[in-house]
Amino acid sequence: MLSNVGLSKYFWAEALAYTCYLINRKLLSVVGGKTPLKAWSEKVAQDYDLLRVFECPSCYHIKEDKLDPRAKKGVFIGFKKSVKGYKIWDPKYKKFILNRDVTFDEASIVKPTNSQPVESEKTKGISQQVKSDATSPSLDRTVSLEIIPAVT
């Protein structure tokens, strides 16, 4: 989790806390098809729409002055227990921000891949062998059946 965006090992505790948060909201067959949160506290997890990708770039909204920027960039780290809102790391000021008004840019995490077919002498030989082994059904080997009614 920490290697996706390149945060340091300093954030391992935050990654572990968010992983536990996710596991406690996942259905498990070990506890009878319930979430661990439901099995332990009889509370139903209803905050699935709040889940975000760990370390996703985000902008937290601020209200300081009319002429100041209205949002600052940060990285989503998780949630603070018993606080409504998101926990954001601000790399510029090197501090955690707790804020409810956050915009996430999860699409920027997905890196485009340029997939190209890998072709070498081995793959050419394999594809040629597969093509030559495949035979179509021959019409010369047809079997004819004659149905003779039983005489009673």
Describe the structure.
The chain has a domain at 9-108. The chain has a five-stranded antiparallel β-sheet with strand order 4-3-2-1-5. The chain has three helices and five strands; from the N terminus they run H-H-E-E-E-E-E-H. 20% of the residues lie in helices and 17% in strands. The chain is extended. By secondary structure, the chain is of the alpha+beta class. Mean pLDDT is 76; it is low at 129-134.
Low-confidence regions: 129-134
- Separate helix tally: 3
Strand order of the largest sheet: 4-3-2-1-5
For the biggest sheet, the summary is: 5 strands, antiparallel
Overview in brief:
The protein is an alpha+beta fold.
Task: State the main characteristics.
152 residues; single chain; five-stranded antiparallel sheet; 5 strands; extended; 3 helices; alpha+beta
Secondary structure elements and pairings:
Blueprint: H1 12-23, H2 36-41, E1 57-61, E2 71-78, E3 86-90, E4 95-99, E5 102-104, H3 121-133
Antiparallel strand pairs: 1-2, 1-5, 2-3, 3-4
